Amino acid sequence: MSQKFDVVVIGAGPGGYVAAIKAAQLGLKTACIEKYQGKEGKTALGGTCLNVGCIPSKALLDSSYKFHEAHESFKVHGISTGDVAIDVPTMVARKDQIVKNLTGGVAALLKANGVTLFEGHGKLLAGKQVEVAKLDGSTEVLAAENVILASGSKPVDIPPAPVDQDIIVDSTGALDFQDVPKRLGVIGAGVIGLELGSVWARLGAEVTVIEALDKFLPAADEQVAKEAQKILGKQGLNIRLGARVTGSKIEGREVTVNFTDANGEQQQTFDKLIVAVGRRPVTTDLLAADSGVNLDERGFIFVDDYCATSVPGVYAIGDVVRGAMLAHKASEEGVVVAERIAGHKAQLNYDLIPSVIYTHPEIAWVGKSEQVLKSEGVEVNVGTFPFAASGRAMAANDTAGFVKVIADAKTDRVLGVHVIGPSAAELVQQGAIGMEFGTSAEDLGLMVFSHPTLSEALHEAALAVNGHAIHVANRKKR
């Protein structure tokens, strides 16, 4: 006789494990299924984000930035050092230890909340039955009142550059280089490509980023994207826009990439090539033919605004459904679904999900960009404040970038906060909190911000919206 649960979650990434914990906290008998095996051959929880995504990449970004600072920036502080060297295997081992600590932490949280963990591949059958294909080859069928599909995503492959995880790698392989490649190619100038390119550029690699789109960071505010392209270019990232990869050939320990751009056929040789052209939902063998759950034309599970699928009692969250592929979006969807299963009227505000690129300086935004608002015919007032005028940024020797606040010209309601600069992600979160409560630019301007802080730049940008900035000259109204 099969075990019965109120909720069965397939996938233990940021969406799945959070949904499972929340469901259990709400008094529901909950199971969570995970098949991913970590480096040590054991089930590792936390999904892509924790194992081979956001967390390990941040560990490498921080390590590489410390090296960059020691190499380039200590002198200005009066700090002198001998020759600064990077031990890449030690840096990678530190990253692995952080991942191990956190995946172990997720397992402990599931246990502490009474969630039953099944190790293996989960598959939704008809009638809300879930089959678990265990690692030992056996199978078990669970009966569920409710099922949450949280199977995540994986890197997109492209035929012109097949990944071998040696010379040509995806985002996972790029986290495990054991030395710094002299010449590094990156296909894709999105979040992942820029972050991973930054890591190895700081450590001395010559980095070329090949991007098929003609526009740099089209999802970001144009003013921010333009500044980012300029800063990253100065940092040594050679960003080639409008460049379409047509083929690649590995010879010995190097790869030659062919691509076409405005100048015609091009060719470049690298020691390593990272393919970072996006991610796609993992739905392989997830749904039995008679499960009743539908996919859309792009392979995502079709859901409504509350993450419900076409089958009552079956939900899907995170990278496997529409919307941004962001860990925090997945987690909050998990909470919403658990709450709704428990009978509460929870919902998620998809208009205020922050986006962050963890280059240095960080790039982050919440709400709408100026170009989107203009295309929608919304009249706006814009205030900006440069970190070059921030005392705290000067003290930290970190003055690149600016804060931009966009408000409705008629109501003064803040519609977007965009930051490139130090602690951009944290400053944008302040904007998100205000926007969730319907803040006006005037409201932000009336608040007291401590001095000297980076957050004063948000204060000043909000004041600048209506021509009231104190520490920078205000734009004259036309």
TrEMBL record:
One of its GO terms (cellular component) is cytoplasm. PROSITE patterns: PYRIDINE_REDOX_1. Coiled coil: none annotated. Signal peptide: none annotated. Residues 5-334 form the FAD/NAD(P)-binding domain. Disulfide bonds join 49-54. The keyword Transport does not apply. Keywords: Cytoplasm, Disulfide bond, FAD, Flavoprotein, NAD, Nucleotide-binding, Oxidoreductase, Redox-active center. It is found in: Cytoplasm. One of its GO terms (biological process) is 2-oxoglutarate metabolic process. Its cofactor is FAD. NAD(+) binds at residues 188-195, 211, 278. It catalyses: N(6)-[(R)-dihydrolipoyl]-L-lysyl-[protein] + NAD(+) = N(6)-[(R)-lipoyl]-L-lysyl-[protein] + NADH + H(+). It is an enzyme of class 1 (oxidoreductase). One of its GO terms (molecular function) is dihydrolipoyl dehydrogenase (NADH) activity. Its main location: cytoplasm. Residues 353-462 form the Pyridine nucleotide-disulphide oxidoreductase dimerisation domain. The active site is at 451 (proton acceptor). Binds 1 FAD per subunit. Its EC number is 1.8.1.4. The keyword NAD applies. Belongs to the class-I pyridine nucleotide-disulfide oxidoreductase family. Homodimer. The active site is a redox-active disulfide bond. This is Dihydrolipoyl dehydrogenase. It comes from Stutzerimonas kirkiae. The lineage of its organism: Bacteria, Pseudomonadati, Pseudomonadota, Gammaproteobacteria, Pseudomonadales.
